[in-house]
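Subject line: Sequence and fold of a protein, written as structure tokens
Area: Proteins and the way their chains fold up in space.
Start of record: The labelled sequence and token lines come straight after this line.
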Amino acid sequence: MDHDVPIRVDRSSPVPLYFQVAQHLEQLIESGELAAGSRLENEIDLADRLGLSRPTMRKAIGYLVDRGLLVRKRGVGTQVVHAKVRRQIELTSLYDDLAKTRRDPSTTVVSFSRLPASGTVALDLGLAEGTEVYAFERLRCADGEPLALMRNHVPAGLLPLTADGLERQGLYNLLRASGITLRIAKQSIGARAATAAEARALAESKSAPLLTMERTAYDDQGRAVEHGSHLYRASRYSFDLTLTGW
């Protein structure tokens, strides 16, 4: 059945009509009122019901398709896909954030080893070059859909880690369980195009945009306890920041 969405537009607002419609639809998707798999009513009927031109409605739908919230399927119509994961910039793990928002996190360990820290890794973790570290890569999914590729290094002397443990729990849960208190992190966020291998792993198209995050976390003793280099699907993920004035 087509989903009859409750949308209102304010013709006196300076906000373009197409963007008002897109914002309303995005709010309905994020709230779960329009669940994944829901089908919108016909684009023409929706335009007529709202008293909007068809190009305006087409632009609103196209905006959300480009953002990865809707998909057009031949013979089916316009459907809702999974809502984007929105994440506050805080010292939390992706696993914790997904679990808290009931997004059913799951993890596949792609690689796992112990090796001597190279110059760059040793510098990131404040270790002598050659000190043993865990090096691992994980594919994190939300609701069964690939979301992030995460490459991490952790000093081997801090705690015992196994690939099985990392598939069952988030890294920060394991750190906390070993008595390590995370206190502060240095983090940078950027973007780049996916390589062919990254696109395949994340179920994205070739050269799709990815968000990047580099993070070094420190405990309450000032020790660097992990360095992460993470990739997120820009179509499914965003960082939220709260800015305050003086």
